[in-house]
Design goal:
two-stranded antiparallel sheet; globular
């Protein structure tokens, strides 16, 4: 019988002061990428992007955290396992602490690549509001915009998300538990 996957506790700050702690099994812990699996069993309302359900109650997402990167990537699936696309939060590079404790701060912008579609930037209005309210400073806002632009450029060139995101399907992630 295999051992259960160890858990990580991701302290995810959404400025100005909303802290969420996500507890997820870690499936791969390499120097270049950390892969976790999130289960969304208490979603009140489906997450829709461009009118299509991307995440709902019972959904799962395979999350890829890249140490030192200003973004993560999630492979989103509906409750029935249907892959809906890749979602990327622009965030501060996570810090990793003993006991599986991670810390990062959401920087409002997100990138969405629907299954079979093209990458788009989401929530630019939220970043503008955050900067106007002093929740992020001008330098951080500029770094956030640059990260989003870089990811869109790489997506258009076909080199992002990295191959490991395609390799770690939901089925592979569930098999690694």
């Amino acid at each position: 019988m295999s051992q259960p996957s160890p858990l990580v506790h991701i302290h995810y700050l959404r400025p100005p002061g909303r802290l969420e702690i996500f507890t997820q099994p870690i499936l791969l812990d390499d120097p270049g990428v950390k892969i976790t699996l999130a289960s969304y069993d208490e979603v009140e309302h489906p997450m829709t992007i461009d009118g299509l359900v991307s995440l709902e109650c019972g959904s799962k997402a395979v999350w890829f955290t890249f140490p030192g990167a200003w973004h993560d990537v999630g492979r989103f699936h509906r409750a029935d396992g249907t892959f809906t696309g890749c979602y990327s939060n622009i965030l501060t590079p996570p810090t990793f602490h003993d006991g599986g404790i991670w810390h990062t701060t959401d920087l409002f912008l997100d990138i969405w690549i629907p299954s079979g579609g093209v990458a788009t930037v989401l929530d630019e209005d939220e970043l503008q509001e955050a900067e106007a309210n002093g929740w992020v400073d001008a330098a951080t806002a500029n770094r956030t915009l640059q990260e989003a632009a870089d990811l869109i450029e790489k997506a258009e060139a076909g080199v992002w998300p990295p191959p490991i995101v395609e390799e770690w399907t939901l089925e592979k992630a569930l098999g690694a538990l």
